[in-house]
Design a protein that fits this description.
Length: 247
């Protein structure tokens, strides 16, 4: 059964990024003359993907949610990169692994924030939320289709690979070894692990990491930030430091 993408942003992103093949795109026939769809139709034509206009009820039957905006696409499986492919950027690498996130909306939100912050690529485990393509595509505003993704069996395997290629291994954690991310040089090539809602980052990984990054709070607060908040705060601090260094 083909994978389904839903919504303009996810379908447009899949066409432009090329990480999966699209078989056909279905559009609400009432949107036939919608100027906002010109770029989508142009991209589909360039990729040789058929566009069909059909009744809204047909799209509603196919869609998994109600926020598809009258656009769905039949697509193939997501193509993943090799870990080495994530290092092809000219700038100092910034690679993030999302491990153990149990909610697809949290996964999508973290991907969306990291993409906006300029991360070069993300690492996931073999079983991950990219299988929920329709939901994650919508919730991530299509960024899951644009961001290069690679697969690793474990966080330790990914860290070993990137350490061997000169990256600093970091994780989001808060214990005696952790340092404020605002007082840490994040301009170096970096592999960052962000753990999930329940288990966080394992003790063994924290011990092996070169850096444990702590997000300072504005008041006494015993709980940890969620994965989406942590990804946003750390991702944009990395971006800020690197932009300051380059000016």
């Amino acid at each position: 059964m083909p994978t389904q993408l839903e919504g303009l942003l996810a379908v447009q992103a899949a066409l432009e990024a090329g990480f999966r093949d699209l078989q056909q795109i279905l559009i609400d026939e009432n949107k036939r003359y919608d100027r906002r769809l010109r770029e989508l139709r142009r991209s589909a034509e360039g990729a040789g993907v058929a566009v069909r206009f059909t009744a809204r009820s047909t799209i509603d039957e196919r869609a998994s949610g109600e926020s598809h905006g009258g656009i769905v696409a039949e697509a193939g499986d997501r193509r993943f990169c090799q870990l080495a492919d994530l290092l092809l950027a000219k700038d100092a690498a910034f690679i993030v692994m999302l491990d153990g996130i149990e909610d697809p909306y949290n996964f999508a939100g973290a991907i969306r924030a990291l993409y906006a912050a300029g991360v070069h690529g993300a690492v996931v485990r073999p079983r991950n939320w990219t299988s929920a393509a329709a939901l994650v595509g919508r919730a991530s505003a299509g960024t899951i289709e644009r961001l290069p993704l690679a697969v690793a069996e474990s966080a330790a395997d990914a860290a070993e690979f990137f350490r061997g290629r000169g990256l600093v291994i970091a994780c989001a954690a808060s214990d005696d070894r952790s340092k404020s991310l605002y007082q840490t040089d994040l301009t170096r090539p970096l592999f960052l692990l962000i753990g999930g809602e329940r288990r966080g980052v394992t003790r063994s990984f924290r011990r092996a990491a070169d850096l444990q990054l702590r997000i300072p709070y504005g008041r006494e607060f015993a709980s940890a930030l969620g994965a989406v908040s942590a990804a946003s705060v750390i991702g944009f601090e990395v971006m800020r430091q690197r932009r300051c260094k380059s000016t």
